[in-house]
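Reading a protein record of the kind used here takes only a little practice. Think of the row as the fold of the chain written in a discrete alphabet. A record is reproduced here so that you can trace the correspondence yourselves:
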Amino acid sequence: MTGLATVLIFLVATVVAVPIFKKLKLGAILGYLVAGLVIGPQVFDWVNDPQTILHVAELGVVLLLFLIGLELAPDKLWKMRTQIVFTGGGQLLISALAIGAILHFVLGFSVVISSIIGLSLGLSSTAFAVQLMSEHKILKTPPGQQGFSILLMQDLAVIPILLLVESVSSANTTSGPQWWISVLAVVGVLIIGRFLVNPFLRLISSYGSAEVMTASALLIVIATALGMEAAGLSMGMGAFIAGILLANSSFRHQLETEIEPFKGLLLGLFFIAIGMNLDLSLLVSEPLFIISASIMLVVIKTLIIFLILKANKQLTTDAMRIGLMLSQGGEFAFVVMTQAAGSGILAPDIAAQVSLIVGISMALTAPLVILHSMWFTSKNCPAVYDSHRDESEPQVIIAGFGRFGQVSARILAANNIAFTALDKDAKHIEFVKQFGNKVFYGDASRLDLLETAGIAQAKILLIAVDNEDDALKIAELVQQNFPHVSIIARARNRFTAKRLSELGVKLYVRELFAGGLEAAGMLLKEYGFNNEQVNEMVSIFAEHDKTLLDKTVNEKMNMDELIKTSKKGREELATLFKRDRLIHEKNK
């Protein structure tokens, strides 16, 4: 079968399976797994090289870990250290001990094999659980953050587990990279990420196109991942470290926006490949054992996570739901099993059984979460999650961070009001950051970038961009997709104000009008008028101009009518000035 035909089969399977499973509220990931099972060697055998596909699709997990790293600035990671070490570490160790004890004392496996399988099954699926928590809108709530800290600790533990497998390998006759090479690789990533990546991205943003920026984002992730793999470490860990180093970068939102589509597609392919690799013949030959083991895995992990979260003073409903969401085996278990079987630690049939148990546990997770939600909804429990909000998410977004936008930004910063600023001039961003402002690279006229910057959670958007067309495009996008956001827009002139008003923007500021009035007042004073006269003249003009602008905005006019109205307005203004001057002369 040609490569293009294989791609066609993947696309058809995805388009058919995923919407059905999402309609049934079973989740997209379960749809991917079933799609892979159907098209793979176990059912129709339309695609018969699942191992190669799985190897390629692992890039989806790598991109996921990079995006997770982008969300975790070092200071935020440091704040989460207690949750990561004690909550996450406790879950993994207790789960591994419980599962390992059953394998050793009940099934008779050796301590080494029991430990490796126990640690592998103690890992949950980051991709699966994060998506479930996002779909249920609990990822950024306190219980969701507890669950995320568990997943984060598991991701960090993948490297030691893989190193453990490597160290006890009986078939590995060639020595891998020396430990100091791995240390040098980590140091190299830290140095490159700290000092070279941002200048590289600034250069690309100045002289490259949007496509080149996308290629640069993928280049950073893949190069880091392959470099760490060559040094004997995990590709995912390399991507994760790179993400953390760029979490405070001005290009963070842009990188997240560029990589997100690739991550989604490759992650879907990854789960399809997992489904293709599941050996259903084992389920047919040993159905009772496989199903019982899968259920026991879900029960053990749910109970352990539930107890840990209860010890951390989470509500019973929250603790149970998070426990169910993290109860499945994880994608890294497939990686560990493959390495353990290839190195001779595990028999291939045992590794296949563990992989099948993990796959079935994934299939059980979404239905159990749905049943739990239905049970508590039927019991009329109050909404637990929707009222929570991530306090670190700014409610103000400033699109365009030139001189106009900076005035508002400085006032906000002086009053400790958080905001997110976007500007597409990389050199400008670096200059502004020297003065302590936090601003990100990106074109605010792109809907995906606005979404990444948090427009859905924002209350106010200040459109301060120079380009009139960009300003109108941003206003139109936000009005159509996020009508709850209050827009304050910079208008170059009265015609721009009219177009903004037609888009539904009620608050706009003509960029030169207030400064022009102030300059006119100074000019009149220097000319010889007193303060009272100057204030009245400026006030008359401002009031008249506002009336004229309101008429322009509220009435539908073509260009000729606008010109006639403008001329008539000037005549009226001249009459007002003349009458005002006569009054002053009479009062002298």
Summary: The chain has a mean pLDDT of 80. The chain has three domains: 3-169+177-378, 393-511, 515-588. Residues 317 and 376 are 8 Å apart (CA to CA).
